[in-house]
Specification:
Layout lengths: L15 E3 L3 E4 L2 H12 L4 H15 L9 E7 L6 E5 L9 H6 L18 H12 L4 H14 L1 E2 L2 H16 L2 H7 L11 E2 L2 H11 L8 H24 L3 E2 L5 E2 L5 H5 L4 E3 L2 E5 L2 E5 L6 H18 L9 H21 L9 H9 L1 H8 L42 E2 L5 E2 L5 E4 L5 E7 L46 E5 L2 E7 L6 H14 L4 H6 L3 E2 L16 E5 L4 H9 L3 E5 L8 E6 L4 E6 L7 E4 L1
Parallel strand pairs: 19-20
Antiparallel strand pairs: 1-22, 2-14, 2-23, 3-4, 3-15, 4-9, 5-6, 7-8, 10-11, 11-16, 12-13, 14-15, 16-17, 17-21, 18-19, 21-22
């Protein structure tokens, strides 16, 4: 194992170790909920579902019931599968319809940006097929927080404050829910969501009390589809302000919700230094992480493992350039496999060693300012539009990526949770979408629709063109690791286009550098925006590189000398990784969580 540069700080927190069960997430209340389920005899599935519904309530600026999720689930003794909780485009979502509204691209906020909500049904499907707890018990923590309130986090308050003018002027139903009494809440105020609590109560009591556990969960799915479908169809008929295009009606119907069902799929995978890395398929950005590893392995074969160290200027430069190439391929080739002629062949060609070597050979001594997708297998290339940041009008507040920082800049973010139980089941899940600022709140439901359709294109030549029933290419990207045929770790992070970038740094430090999990999470992070953004306004920032200041002046100066346009952020500002895992040779489990943002926590014993 290669020895990398020592981290600037060893650990901000202890890495948790135990033999019973572990949980980690982006909010302490979700982590505590998951661990409490494990303590009361629940499995990792029961715990993850309970925690996910809590995240809907306590991180409403980052995910919601109207959103989506991507998870990798590894039941004890079984091969992992991808739980695809990504809804598709509505039946009326055609390029012709959007063009007829005067739109050149899909808005980043408003009902026209919404894919069918997938999160709730996917979680309930997992509970029905793999869980053990009754739905009433699983939903109880989230119901309590929605009905009785929870202390609102400062990050939620900042988001509400940033979009308050939008709510007051254009989205009064959102103002009524998130600005009670006509004011932005203060951090620590108890906030409730009575309409969502009422719907949770109905879901929890669905079905015949004398029926099976599974039948009652399926009854809840049917109730969700009926109630939410009717409310959505009625609400979106009224035109509302979108991020572009003015006041427009939505197109989603009850039939769109009725047509949705989650999928269980085989993961994509790549062998890297004795570890099998598992990701979701080409309808996510997950394979870009696998491709980055393949490109970096090819670069290391020529230049040595020094190019893999994320703490040196050489390593940061090489990793960044590899990411640019992989993400360029993401934007040119990734799409719903339903519209790809042979998705298995495309994925194989993208990850082929010869193609990785071809891509690695493009990495020079200085930062590239180009967007350079390749031609895997000699395929004909579709080139996404390349528009530099600053050349388009500023979008409506609330559009694009789901969070806004204190300077008003949009930063990608979402939620993440990991659970491992005493039976050896592991789950890595990244829920997102339906954040409170994405679309007007539907008063009868207490939540809004998501905006995932903005990742599709109004260009019929694009592999990821808008069409009815097509899943948008998601940014949600959990990860699982397998050693010698056994799943040993589940991990992930929020972060929009940065999710797989930050996870790549973690994996290099863990697998190549020998870092412990908490060390790898705490080590300085960086990312690039030199690719076509997944979110409105979908621009490129050539040669951009955003780093935490802890990377060090000497390294930063050398990166600038190599032509990178470096933005230096605070010492603890990038990434929100968490993980859980098993050390089979040593007989214990572990968990670690990010300290950045003072929100994520791990728990276990």
């Amino acid at each position: 194992m290669t020895s990398f540069t020592a981290p600037a700080a060893d650990r901000t927190r202890p890495e948790l170790r135990g033999t019973f069960g572990m949980a980690a997430s982006t909010h302490w209340l979700a982590t505590a909920t998951a661990q409490s389920v494990l303590e009361r005899g629940g499995t990792a599935v029961d715990a993850a579902v309970a925690a996910a519904f809590v995240l809907h309530v306590v991180e409403p600026h980052l995910n919601g019931p109207g959103g989506d999720l991507t998870a990798i689930v590894a039941p004890a003794g079984e091969h992992p599968f991808v739980l695809a909780g990504q809804g598709a485009a509505p039946a009326a979502a055609t390029i012709e319809h959007y063009r007829g509204l005067g739109l050149d691209e899909i808005p980043g906020a408003g009902p026209l940006a919404a894919a069918v909500p997938g999160s709730v049904v996917a979680w309930l499907h997992l509970l029905a097929t793999r869980g053990t707890w009754q739905l009433t018990d699983v939903l109880a923590p989230a119901l309590g927080y929605a009905r009785d309130g929870h202390p609102v986090h400062a990050n939620v308050v900042r988001t509400i404050a940033a979009v308050a003018p939008l709510f007051e002027q254009h989205w009064p139903t959102s103002a009524a829910q998130w600005m009670p009494g006509g004011r932005v809440p203060e951090p620590g105020d108890l906030i409730t969501n009575e309409p969502w609590a009422a719907l949770l109560e109905r879901l929890a009591s669905a079905g015949d009390a004398s029926g099976t556990r599974e039948s009652r969960v399926h009854a809840a799915i049917s109730l969700w589809t009926e109630v939410v479908g009717a409310a959505v169809e009625q609400f979106v008929q009224t035109p509302v302000k979108h991020s572009i295009g003015g006041a427009l009606p939505g197109i989603m119907t009850a039939a769109d919700l009725a047509a949705y069902s989650p999928a269980e799929e085989a993961p994509a995978s790549l062998a890297f230094r004795g570890v099998e890395v598992l990701k979701a398929g080409l309808w996510t950005q997950g394979p870009a992480l696998l491709q980055s590893l393949a490109i970096l392995e090819a670069a290391a074969a020529v230049h040595g493992d020094g190019v893999l160290d994320p703490s040196t200027a050489l390593g940061v430069h090489t990793i960044t350039e590899a990411l640019k190439l992989a993400l360029a391929d993401r934007d040119a080739w990734f799409a719903d496999p339903a519209v790809i002629d042979d998705p298995h062949a495309l994925l194989a060609d993208l990850l082929a060693p010869a193609y990785a070597a071809e891509r690695a050979a493009l990495i020079g001594e200085t930062a590239s300012r180009e967007v350079r997708p390749g031609r895997p297998g000699g395929r004909e290339l579709w080139m996404p539009p390349v528009r530099e940041a600053g050349t388009t009008a500023a979008p409506l507040p609330g559009s694009g990526e789901p969070t806004l920082d204190s300077a008003g800049r949009q930063r990608g973010d979402t939620c993440h949770l990991d659970v491992v139980d005493r039976h050896g089941t592991l789950i890595s899940a990244t829920p997102s979408g339906g954040w409170l600022q994405s679309s007007p709140t539907i008063p009868a439901l207490g939540f809004c629709l998501g905006t995932r359709l903005q990742m599709l294109w109004l260009d019929p030549e694009s592999p990821s063109a808008l069409a009815p029933g097509i899943r948008p290419r998601s940014t949600l990207s959990p990860t699982m690791l397998v050693r010698e045929g056994r799943v040993v770790e589940a991990l992930g992070t929020p972060g929009g286009d940065q999710q797989d970038q930050w996870q790549l740094l973690y994996l290099l430090r863990r697998i190549v550098g020998g870092y412990e999990p908490q060390q790898a999470i705490d080590a300085p992070m960086f990312h690039t925006d030199a690719m076509v953004a997944s979110f409105e306004p979908r621009t490129v920032q050539p040669a951009s590189l955003t780093v935490e200041s802890r990377l060090g002046d000497e390294v930063i100066d050398e990166l600038r000398a190599r032509g990178h346009v470096v933005t230096v952020m605070g010492p603890w500002s990038l990434g929100r990784l968490s993980c859980v895992g098993i050390e089979p040779d040593r007989g214990w489990m572990f968990a670690a969580a990010n300290s950045r943002g003072n929100q994520g926590y791990a728990a276990g014993r």
